Automatic annotation (TrEMBL):
UniProtKB keywords: Signal
Protein name as catalogued: Lipoprotein
Annotated signal peptide: 1-16
Organism, scientific name: Neoroseomonas soli
PROSITE patterns per the UniProt record, alphabetical: PROKAR_LIPOPROTEIN
Highest taxon of the lineage: Bacteria
């Protein structure tokens, strides 16, 4: 039984560290993608799930629910299993004015503390990579 718990704790810590890193990537995107042109956003994030128009501009929304990551260890003494998982979902909304990103909002849910926006990272990660390699520019 100790063996099951010996690898469970490091696995849970690694899972939490990855989620915290992804949350930081999402927060980085909130700042660094402002000014991105609409065509470049579509290139790196894809076609949005929803679009809307208002007096405040155009809004593109991306919904993402990545597969849950987790660790499961059978505990035969108890007769069941012990698991630690990180289920999460994310909605990213980009506000565009005059064809450029002006704000990014996240609506995310996560089962892990300190990783609120971790599921949002895949939406902005590709765009950040293109900004970093100067393949797209912010204006």
């Amino acid at each position: 039984m100790r063996l099951a718990f010996a690898w469970l704790l490091p696995s849970a810590l690694a899972l939490g560290a990855c989620s915290a890193r992804d949350s930081a990537v999402a927060e980085d995107g909130r700042e660094r993608l402002v000014g991105l042109r609409a065509d470049d956003l579509r290139l790196c994030a894809g076609v949005p799930n929803l679009t809307a128009q208002s007096a405040g501009g155009e809004f593109w929304t991306y919904d993402r629910t990545p597969p849950a990551a987790g660790v499961s260890a059978p505990v035969p003494v108890i007769g069941g299993s012990l698991s630690v998982s990180a289920g999460s979902s994310c909605r990213v909304t980009f506000q565009l004015v005059d064809g450029k990103v002006t704000r990014i909002g996240y609506s995310a849910a996560s089962d892990l503390p300190m990783s609120q926006n971790s599921a949002c990272a895949p939406v902005v990660q590709g765009c950040l990579r293109l900004v970093d390699t100067n393949e797209v520019r912010r204006e």
